[in-house]
Design goal:
alpha+beta, name from scop, two-stranded antiparallel sheet, FhlB domain-containing protein
Length: 108
């Protein structure tokens, strides 16, 4: 957490060095609505910061996974996550659901 403004301040690390640009991808999954999670937002730099700020303001947990973000950022908006990424995305969604449950909410 950034003590100045109480917002998560994730650092994107790649190979032990800071990545040249911050990246973020937001996923949405509603069982019964679509077959798989869908990319609802993505961006680099300031756009990535805005995505993470919006998530933090909405109480949506932020998970850091540099490799997965690289792959997901290549998908189009409103595109379903492909089957070959289901296992990795399931781990992220599991983290989100556990975080939400611990917080006593249901934002997911």
């Amino acid at each position: 957490m950034n003590k100045q403004n109480d917002k998560p301040s994730p650092s994107v690390v790649k190979g032990g060095h800071l990545a040249p640009r911050l990246k973020a991808v937001a996923l949405k999954y509603e069982p019964g609505d679509r077959n798989a999670p869908v990319v609802v937002a993505k961006g680099t730099g300031r756009m990535a910061e805005a995505i993470m700020d919006k998530a933090a303001q909405s109480g949506v947990p932020i998970q850091q996974d540099t490799s997965l973000v690289e792959v997901l950022s290549k998908l189009d908006l409103d595109q379903e996550v492909p089957p070959e990424l289901y296992t990795l995305v399931a781990e992220i969604l599991s983290f989100v659901y556990r975080s939400d449950k611990r917080a006593g909410g249901s934002k997911v």
